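The protein record quoted for completeness.
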Amino acid sequence: MIVLMKKMQYSLSMIGSLLLILQLPLMISAQEELSLSDAIRTGLENNFQIRIFENSVEIAKNNNTWGTAGMFPTIALGINQANRFDNLPSQLDPGERSKAYSNNVSPYVNLKWNLFSGFGVRINKAKLAEIQAFSEGNAIIVVENTIQGIILAYYNTLLQLETLITLNELKKLSRDRYDYVDYRRELGAAVTYDVLQAKNAYLEDSTTYLLQQLNVENAFLYLRLLLGEESDVQYDLTDQFNVVEQDFHYDSLLVQMKSENSNLRNQYINQEILKKEVQSARSARYPYLNLNAGFDHYNNRLDLVDGPTSYSYNLDYYVNFSLGFNLSNGGNIKRVIQNAKIEEEIGYLEIAEMEINLSNQLKNNYDLYNIRRQLYEVSMVNVESAKLNLEISTDKFRSGAINSFNFRDVQVIYLRASVSRLQAIFNLIDTHAELLRLTGGIIREI
Protein backbone atom coordinates (compact mmCIF):
# COMPACT_ATOMS: atom_id res chain seq x y z
CA MET A 1 0.00 0.00 0.00
CA ILE A 2 2.80 2.41 0.91
CA VAL A 3 4.57 1.62 -2.36
CA LEU A 4 1.37 2.29 -4.29
CA MET A 5 0.88 5.65 -2.63
CA LYS A 6 4.47 6.65 -3.34
CA LYS A 7 3.98 5.80 -7.02
CA MET A 8 0.82 7.92 -7.07
CA GLN A 9 2.59 10.90 -5.53
CA TYR A 10 5.51 10.48 -7.93
CA SER A 11 3.12 10.43 -10.91
CA LEU A 12 1.35 13.58 -9.70
CA SER A 13 4.70 15.26 -9.17
CA MET A 14 5.72 14.41 -12.73
CA ILE A 15 2.45 15.83 -14.07
CA GLY A 16 2.97 19.05 -12.15
CA SER A 17 6.51 19.35 -13.50
CA LEU A 18 5.28 18.69 -17.04
CA LEU A 19 2.62 21.38 -16.75
CA LEU A 20 5.23 23.83 -15.52
CA ILE A 21 7.55 23.00 -18.41
CA LEU A 22 4.76 23.50 -20.93
CA GLN A 23 3.93 26.88 -19.42
CA LEU A 24 7.54 28.10 -19.47
CA PRO A 25 7.54 29.28 -23.13
CA LEU A 26 4.47 31.42 -22.43
CA MET A 27 6.06 32.91 -19.31
CA ILE A 28 9.52 33.66 -20.71
CA SER A 29 8.50 34.87 -24.19
CA ALA A 30 8.17 38.60 -24.64
CA GLN A 31 4.53 39.33 -25.34
CA GLU A 32 3.19 42.15 -27.46
CA GLU A 33 -0.10 43.72 -26.46
CA LEU A 34 -2.72 43.36 -29.15
CA SER A 35 -6.19 44.89 -29.16
CA LEU A 36 -8.88 43.94 -31.64
CA SER A 37 -8.54 47.25 -33.48
CA ASP A 38 -4.77 46.76 -33.73
CA ALA A 39 -5.31 43.23 -35.01
CA ILE A 40 -7.70 44.45 -37.72
CA ARG A 41 -5.34 47.23 -38.78
CA THR A 42 -2.39 44.84 -38.96
CA GLY A 43 -4.41 42.25 -40.84
CA LEU A 44 -5.62 44.77 -43.40
CA GLU A 45 -2.08 46.00 -43.97
CA ASN A 46 -0.56 42.54 -44.41
CA ASN A 47 -3.35 40.58 -46.10
CA PHE A 48 -2.18 39.40 -49.50
CA GLN A 49 -5.64 39.20 -51.05
CA ILE A 50 -6.34 42.81 -50.12
CA ARG A 51 -3.06 43.90 -51.66
CA ILE A 52 -3.88 41.95 -54.82
CA PHE A 53 -7.30 43.57 -55.13
CA GLU A 54 -5.82 47.01 -54.43
CA ASN A 55 -3.58 46.51 -57.46
CA SER A 56 -6.62 45.43 -59.48
CA VAL A 57 -8.37 48.65 -58.46
CA GLU A 58 -5.31 50.63 -59.52
CA ILE A 59 -5.41 48.97 -62.94
CA ALA A 60 -9.10 49.81 -63.28
CA LYS A 61 -8.36 53.44 -62.36
CA ASN A 62 -5.61 53.62 -64.97
CA ASN A 63 -7.98 52.26 -67.61
CA ASN A 64 -10.78 54.68 -66.72
CA THR A 65 -9.68 57.48 -69.05
CA TRP A 66 -11.09 59.15 -72.14
CA GLY A 67 -8.00 58.02 -74.02
CA THR A 68 -8.78 54.37 -73.31
CA ALA A 69 -12.38 54.96 -74.39
CA GLY A 70 -11.18 56.32 -77.76
CA MET A 71 -11.92 60.04 -77.37
CA PHE A 72 -8.53 61.35 -78.51
CA PRO A 73 -6.73 60.91 -81.83
CA THR A 74 -3.66 58.81 -82.40
CA ILE A 75 -0.60 60.52 -83.87
CA ALA A 76 2.22 58.57 -85.47
CA LEU A 77 5.63 59.94 -86.36
CA GLY A 78 7.91 57.82 -88.49
CA ILE A 79 10.38 57.57 -91.30
CA ASN A 80 10.74 55.21 -94.25
CA GLN A 81 14.05 54.59 -95.94
CA ALA A 82 14.63 52.54 -99.12
CA ASN A 83 17.72 51.63 -101.20
CA ARG A 84 17.53 50.28 -104.75
CA PHE A 85 19.84 49.08 -107.52
CA ASP A 86 18.59 49.07 -111.13
CA ASN A 87 20.11 47.88 -114.40
CA LEU A 88 18.67 50.48 -116.84
CA PRO A 89 19.16 51.14 -120.58
CA SER A 90 22.06 53.52 -121.19
CA GLN A 91 21.09 57.09 -122.08
CA LEU A 92 24.14 57.38 -124.39
CA ASP A 93 23.84 54.07 -126.17
CA PRO A 94 20.39 52.44 -126.22
CA GLY A 95 21.99 49.08 -126.91
CA GLU A 96 23.93 49.17 -123.69
CA ARG A 97 22.84 48.82 -120.07
CA SER A 98 23.58 51.34 -117.35
CA LYS A 99 23.72 50.80 -113.59
CA ALA A 100 21.74 53.11 -111.32
CA TYR A 101 21.71 53.43 -107.54
CA SER A 102 18.83 55.17 -105.78
CA ASN A 103 17.88 55.79 -102.18
CA ASN A 104 15.07 57.76 -100.62
CA VAL A 105 14.11 58.97 -97.16
CA SER A 106 10.46 59.66 -96.34
CA PRO A 107 9.61 61.09 -92.91
CA TYR A 108 5.91 61.38 -92.14
CA VAL A 109 3.39 62.44 -89.53
CA ASN A 110 -0.05 60.82 -89.48
CA LEU A 111 -3.14 61.64 -87.40
CA LYS A 112 -6.16 59.32 -87.09
CA TRP A 113 -9.25 60.40 -85.22
CA ASN A 114 -12.56 58.66 -84.74
CA LEU A 115 -14.92 61.63 -84.85
CA PHE A 116 -18.12 59.65 -84.42
CA SER A 117 -18.90 55.97 -83.88
CA GLY A 118 -22.47 55.81 -82.69
CA PHE A 119 -21.74 57.33 -79.25
CA GLY A 120 -19.40 54.39 -78.63
CA VAL A 121 -16.76 56.56 -76.97
CA ARG A 122 -19.09 57.87 -74.28
CA ILE A 123 -20.52 54.40 -73.74
CA ASN A 124 -17.04 52.94 -73.32
CA LYS A 125 -16.06 55.68 -70.88
CA ALA A 126 -19.18 55.04 -68.79
CA LYS A 127 -18.44 51.30 -68.83
CA LEU A 128 -14.85 51.88 -67.70
CA ALA A 129 -16.14 53.94 -64.76
CA GLU A 130 -18.48 51.08 -63.80
CA ILE A 131 -15.64 48.58 -64.09
CA GLN A 132 -13.57 50.70 -61.72
CA ALA A 133 -16.47 50.83 -59.25
CA PHE A 134 -16.88 47.05 -59.60
CA SER A 135 -13.20 46.51 -58.80
CA GLU A 136 -13.47 48.78 -55.78
CA GLY A 137 -16.55 46.81 -54.67
CA ASN A 138 -14.62 43.55 -54.91
CA ALA A 139 -11.88 45.06 -52.77
CA ILE A 140 -14.46 46.12 -50.16
CA ILE A 141 -15.86 42.58 -50.07
CA VAL A 142 -12.38 41.19 -49.40
CA VAL A 143 -11.85 43.78 -46.66
CA GLU A 144 -15.18 42.88 -45.01
CA ASN A 145 -14.42 39.16 -45.11
CA THR A 146 -10.95 39.78 -43.71
CA ILE A 147 -12.30 41.91 -40.87
CA GLN A 148 -14.90 39.30 -40.00
CA GLY A 149 -12.27 36.56 -40.07
CA ILE A 150 -9.95 38.53 -37.79
CA ILE A 151 -12.77 39.31 -35.35
CA LEU A 152 -13.73 35.65 -35.06
CA ALA A 153 -10.10 34.50 -34.83
CA TYR A 154 -9.38 37.09 -32.13
CA TYR A 155 -12.38 36.13 -30.01
CA ASN A 156 -11.82 32.43 -30.63
CA THR A 157 -8.35 32.87 -29.15
CA LEU A 158 -9.91 34.62 -26.16
CA LEU A 159 -12.41 31.76 -25.94
CA GLN A 160 -9.61 29.20 -25.80
CA LEU A 161 -7.74 31.26 -23.20
CA GLU A 162 -10.83 31.62 -21.01
CA THR A 163 -11.49 27.90 -21.35
CA LEU A 164 -7.91 27.23 -20.30
CA ILE A 165 -8.42 29.38 -17.19
CA THR A 166 -11.60 27.47 -16.34
CA LEU A 167 -9.87 24.12 -16.80
CA ASN A 168 -6.98 25.32 -14.66
CA GLU A 169 -9.40 26.20 -11.86
CA LEU A 170 -10.99 22.78 -12.13
CA LYS A 171 -7.56 21.13 -12.17
CA LYS A 172 -6.57 22.98 -9.01
CA LEU A 173 -9.81 21.93 -7.38
CA SER A 174 -9.12 18.31 -8.31
CA ARG A 175 -5.61 18.63 -6.90
CA ASP A 176 -6.97 20.03 -3.64
CA ARG A 177 -9.45 17.20 -3.52
CA TYR A 178 -6.70 14.66 -4.04
CA ASP A 179 -4.50 16.24 -1.35
CA TYR A 180 -7.44 16.29 1.05
CA VAL A 181 -8.35 12.64 0.42
CA ASP A 182 -4.70 11.62 0.71
CA TYR A 183 -4.45 13.48 4.01
CA ARG A 184 -7.56 11.72 5.28
CA ARG A 185 -6.05 8.40 4.21
CA GLU A 186 -3.00 9.12 6.33
CA LEU A 187 -5.33 9.78 9.25
CA GLY A 188 -7.19 6.56 8.55
CA ALA A 189 -10.42 8.32 7.58
CA ALA A 190 -10.23 7.35 3.88
CA VAL A 191 -9.32 4.23 1.96
CA THR A 192 -7.08 3.70 -1.06
CA TYR A 193 -10.12 3.45 -3.35
CA ASP A 194 -11.10 7.03 -2.51
CA VAL A 195 -7.54 8.17 -3.20
CA LEU A 196 -7.56 6.41 -6.56
CA GLN A 197 -10.82 8.10 -7.49
CA ALA A 198 -9.37 11.51 -6.62
CA LYS A 199 -6.19 10.72 -8.53
CA ASN A 200 -8.10 9.66 -11.65
CA ALA A 201 -10.14 12.86 -11.55
CA TYR A 202 -6.98 14.93 -11.24
CA LEU A 203 -5.27 13.06 -14.09
CA GLU A 204 -8.34 13.51 -16.29
CA ASP A 205 -8.48 17.25 -15.59
CA SER A 206 -4.74 17.56 -16.16
CA THR A 207 -5.02 15.82 -19.52
CA THR A 208 -7.88 18.09 -20.55
CA TYR A 209 -5.83 21.09 -19.47
CA LEU A 210 -2.84 19.97 -21.55
CA LEU A 211 -5.02 19.47 -24.63
CA GLN A 212 -6.55 22.90 -24.11
CA GLN A 213 -3.07 24.43 -24.11
CA LEU A 214 -2.65 22.96 -27.58
CA ASN A 215 -5.96 24.54 -28.60
CA VAL A 216 -4.68 27.89 -27.35
CA GLU A 217 -1.48 27.56 -29.38
CA ASN A 218 -3.44 26.62 -32.51
CA ALA A 219 -5.77 29.58 -32.00
CA PHE A 220 -2.81 31.97 -31.72
CA LEU A 221 -1.20 30.35 -34.77
CA TYR A 222 -4.33 30.91 -36.87
CA LEU A 223 -4.64 34.50 -35.62
CA ARG A 224 -1.02 35.21 -36.57
CA LEU A 225 -1.69 33.65 -39.98
CA LEU A 226 -4.60 36.03 -40.62
CA LEU A 227 -2.51 38.97 -39.46
CA GLY A 228 0.39 37.96 -41.69
CA GLU A 229 2.80 37.99 -38.75
CA GLU A 230 5.74 35.74 -37.94
CA SER A 231 4.97 32.51 -36.10
CA ASP A 232 7.24 33.36 -33.15
CA VAL A 233 5.39 36.58 -32.22
CA GLN A 234 3.64 36.25 -28.85
CA TYR A 235 0.54 38.33 -28.22
CA ASP A 236 -1.19 39.49 -25.07
CA LEU A 237 -4.80 40.05 -26.09
CA THR A 238 -6.08 43.15 -24.31
CA ASP A 239 -9.78 43.13 -25.25
CA GLN A 240 -12.24 41.54 -22.86
CA PHE A 241 -14.11 38.39 -23.78
CA ASN A 242 -17.62 39.73 -23.46
CA VAL A 243 -20.49 40.86 -25.63
CA VAL A 244 -22.36 44.09 -26.08
CA GLU A 245 -25.94 43.05 -26.65
CA GLN A 246 -27.73 45.04 -29.32
CA ASP A 247 -31.41 45.24 -30.14
CA PHE A 248 -31.92 44.62 -33.85
CA HIS A 249 -35.14 45.12 -35.81
CA TYR A 250 -35.56 42.88 -38.82
CA ASP A 251 -37.31 45.43 -41.05
CA SER A 252 -34.55 47.97 -40.49
CA LEU A 253 -31.91 45.34 -41.11
CA LEU A 254 -33.62 44.30 -44.35
CA VAL A 255 -33.72 47.86 -45.68
CA GLN A 256 -30.10 48.38 -44.72
CA MET A 257 -29.07 45.12 -46.33
CA LYS A 258 -30.68 45.98 -49.67
CA SER A 259 -28.92 49.34 -49.76
CA GLU A 260 -25.59 48.60 -48.09
CA ASN A 261 -24.71 44.92 -48.64
CA SER A 262 -21.45 44.92 -50.58
CA ASN A 263 -22.15 41.80 -52.61
CA LEU A 264 -25.55 43.12 -53.67
CA ARG A 265 -24.20 46.58 -54.46
CA ASN A 266 -21.51 45.04 -56.60
CA GLN A 267 -24.15 43.02 -58.42
CA TYR A 268 -26.01 46.26 -59.16
CA ILE A 269 -22.81 47.71 -60.59
CA ASN A 270 -22.30 44.62 -62.71
CA GLN A 271 -25.83 45.07 -64.03
CA GLU A 272 -24.94 48.60 -65.15
CA ILE A 273 -21.96 47.16 -67.01
CA LEU A 274 -24.29 44.72 -68.77
CA LYS A 275 -26.53 47.64 -69.77
CA LYS A 276 -23.53 49.42 -71.25
CA GLU A 277 -22.71 46.26 -73.22
CA VAL A 278 -26.16 46.42 -74.82
CA GLN A 279 -25.66 50.10 -75.69
CA SER A 280 -22.21 49.35 -77.08
CA ALA A 281 -23.62 46.61 -79.29
CA ARG A 282 -26.35 48.94 -80.59
CA SER A 283 -23.80 51.64 -81.44
CA ALA A 284 -22.61 49.46 -84.35
CA ARG A 285 -25.86 50.33 -86.16
CA TYR A 286 -24.90 54.00 -86.36
CA PRO A 287 -22.67 55.50 -89.07
CA TYR A 288 -19.05 56.27 -88.32
CA LEU A 289 -16.93 59.25 -89.30
CA ASN A 290 -13.12 59.12 -89.25
CA LEU A 291 -10.42 61.71 -89.90
CA ASN A 292 -7.06 60.83 -91.40
CA ALA A 293 -4.57 63.71 -91.75
CA GLY A 294 -0.82 64.25 -91.98
CA PHE A 295 2.06 65.08 -94.28
CA ASP A 296 4.82 63.14 -96.07
CA HIS A 297 8.24 64.44 -97.06
CA TYR A 298 9.83 62.49 -99.92
CA ASN A 299 13.58 62.88 -100.56
CA ASN A 300 15.04 60.80 -103.43
CA ARG A 301 18.60 60.52 -104.79
CA LEU A 302 19.36 58.75 -108.12
CA ASP A 303 22.99 58.03 -108.97
CA LEU A 304 23.79 56.79 -112.51
CA VAL A 305 27.19 55.19 -112.99
CA ASP A 306 27.63 56.65 -116.45
CA GLY A 307 25.51 59.71 -115.93
CA PRO A 308 24.74 62.60 -113.58
CA THR A 309 23.26 62.30 -110.10
CA SER A 310 19.74 63.66 -109.70
CA TYR A 311 17.74 64.67 -106.66
CA SER A 312 14.01 65.07 -106.14
CA TYR A 313 11.93 66.39 -103.27
CA ASN A 314 8.23 66.13 -102.54
CA LEU A 315 6.19 67.46 -99.65
CA ASP A 316 2.57 66.32 -99.39
CA TYR A 317 -0.18 67.41 -97.01
CA TYR A 318 -3.49 65.60 -96.74
CA VAL A 319 -6.73 65.73 -94.78
CA ASN A 320 -9.17 62.92 -95.51
CA PHE A 321 -12.57 62.07 -94.11
CA SER A 322 -14.29 58.71 -94.31
CA LEU A 323 -17.97 58.22 -93.62
CA GLY A 324 -19.41 54.73 -93.51
CA PHE A 325 -22.53 52.88 -92.56
CA ASN A 326 -22.80 49.15 -92.04
CA LEU A 327 -25.89 48.13 -93.98
CA SER A 328 -25.49 44.40 -93.40
CA ASN A 329 -22.87 42.00 -92.10
CA GLY A 330 -24.74 38.73 -92.14
CA GLY A 331 -26.83 39.51 -89.06
CA ASN A 332 -23.83 39.65 -86.72
CA ILE A 333 -24.80 43.02 -85.25
CA LYS A 334 -28.29 41.75 -84.47
CA ARG A 335 -26.85 38.60 -82.92
CA VAL A 336 -24.45 40.57 -80.70
CA ILE A 337 -27.29 42.84 -79.53
CA GLN A 338 -29.53 39.86 -78.75
CA ASN A 339 -26.77 38.14 -76.77
CA ALA A 340 -26.08 41.33 -74.82
CA LYS A 341 -29.79 41.60 -73.96
CA ILE A 342 -29.81 37.97 -72.80
CA GLU A 343 -26.77 38.65 -70.59
CA GLU A 344 -28.59 41.66 -69.16
CA GLU A 345 -31.64 39.51 -68.39
CA ILE A 346 -29.39 36.93 -66.71
CA GLY A 347 -28.01 39.75 -64.58
CA TYR A 348 -31.50 40.70 -63.41
CA LEU A 349 -32.19 37.07 -62.49
CA GLU A 350 -28.92 36.87 -60.54
CA ILE A 351 -29.85 40.02 -58.62
CA ALA A 352 -33.26 38.60 -57.75
CA GLU A 353 -31.68 35.33 -56.65
CA MET A 354 -29.08 37.12 -54.55
CA GLU A 355 -31.72 39.30 -52.88
CA ILE A 356 -33.71 36.20 -51.91
CA ASN A 357 -30.63 34.36 -50.63
CA LEU A 358 -29.42 37.36 -48.65
CA SER A 359 -32.88 37.94 -47.21
CA ASN A 360 -33.00 34.30 -46.08
CA GLN A 361 -29.52 34.57 -44.58
CA LEU A 362 -30.50 37.76 -42.80
CA LYS A 363 -33.69 36.24 -41.40
CA ASN A 364 -31.87 33.10 -40.24
CA ASN A 365 -29.09 35.07 -38.58
CA TYR A 366 -31.56 37.50 -37.03
CA ASP A 367 -33.51 34.62 -35.47
CA LEU A 368 -30.27 32.89 -34.51
CA TYR A 369 -29.00 36.06 -32.85
CA ASN A 370 -32.14 36.36 -30.71
CA ILE A 371 -31.97 32.68 -29.75
CA ARG A 372 -28.30 32.96 -28.88
CA ARG A 373 -29.04 36.00 -26.75
CA GLN A 374 -31.46 33.90 -24.74
CA LEU A 375 -28.97 31.04 -24.56
CA TYR A 376 -26.32 33.46 -23.34
CA GLU A 377 -28.61 34.75 -20.59
CA VAL A 378 -29.48 31.19 -19.59
CA SER A 379 -25.81 30.22 -19.54
CA MET A 380 -25.00 33.13 -17.23
CA VAL A 381 -27.63 31.98 -14.74
CA ASN A 382 -26.57 28.37 -15.17
CA VAL A 383 -22.92 29.03 -14.43
CA GLU A 384 -23.78 31.04 -11.33
CA SER A 385 -25.95 28.19 -10.10
CA ALA A 386 -23.28 25.60 -10.91
CA LYS A 387 -20.61 27.63 -9.15
CA LEU A 388 -22.72 27.99 -6.03
CA ASN A 389 -23.49 24.29 -6.14
CA LEU A 390 -19.78 23.55 -6.42
CA GLU A 391 -18.96 25.70 -3.40
CA ILE A 392 -21.68 24.04 -1.33
CA SER A 393 -20.67 20.57 -2.52
CA THR A 394 -17.04 21.24 -1.63
CA ASP A 395 -18.03 21.91 1.97
CA LYS A 396 -20.33 18.89 2.00
CA PHE A 397 -17.57 16.68 0.59
CA ARG A 398 -15.13 17.80 3.27
CA SER A 399 -17.75 17.16 5.93
CA GLY A 400 -18.54 13.73 4.50
CA ALA A 401 -22.12 14.56 3.58
CA ILE A 402 -21.58 13.47 -0.07
CA ASN A 403 -19.22 10.93 -1.57
CA SER A 404 -16.50 11.45 -4.17
CA PHE A 405 -18.75 10.34 -7.05
CA ASN A 406 -21.36 12.98 -6.29
CA PHE A 407 -18.69 15.61 -5.85
CA ARG A 408 -17.15 14.68 -9.20
CA ASP A 409 -20.55 15.01 -10.87
CA VAL A 410 -20.84 18.52 -9.46
CA GLN A 411 -17.38 19.36 -10.84
CA VAL A 412 -18.33 18.13 -14.29
CA ILE A 413 -21.57 20.12 -14.19
CA TYR A 414 -19.64 23.27 -13.30
CA LEU A 415 -17.15 22.64 -16.10
CA ARG A 416 -19.89 22.13 -18.67
CA ALA A 417 -21.75 25.22 -17.50
CA SER A 418 -18.60 27.36 -17.67
CA VAL A 419 -17.65 26.10 -21.12
CA SER A 420 -21.24 26.58 -22.33
CA ARG A 421 -21.20 30.19 -21.10
CA LEU A 422 -17.94 30.87 -22.94
CA GLN A 423 -19.24 29.23 -26.10
CA ALA A 424 -22.49 31.22 -25.83
CA ILE A 425 -20.47 34.45 -25.72
CA PHE A 426 -18.50 33.45 -28.81
CA ASN A 427 -21.62 32.34 -30.67
CA LEU A 428 -23.28 35.68 -29.98
CA ILE A 429 -20.19 37.55 -31.22
CA ASP A 430 -20.15 35.34 -34.33
CA THR A 431 -23.79 36.05 -35.21
CA HIS A 432 -23.42 39.76 -34.45
CA ALA A 433 -20.46 40.01 -36.83
CA GLU A 434 -22.41 38.16 -39.53
CA LEU A 435 -25.36 40.55 -39.19
CA LEU A 436 -23.00 43.49 -39.53
CA ARG A 437 -21.45 41.98 -42.65
CA LEU A 438 -24.80 41.21 -44.26
CA THR A 439 -26.01 44.77 -43.68
CA GLY A 440 -22.74 46.37 -44.83
CA GLY A 441 -21.91 47.78 -41.42
CA ILE A 442 -18.90 45.73 -40.39
CA ILE A 443 -16.43 48.32 -41.69
CA ARG A 444 -18.37 51.20 -40.17
CA GLU A 445 -18.56 49.53 -36.74
CA ILE A 446 -14.83 48.87 -36.27
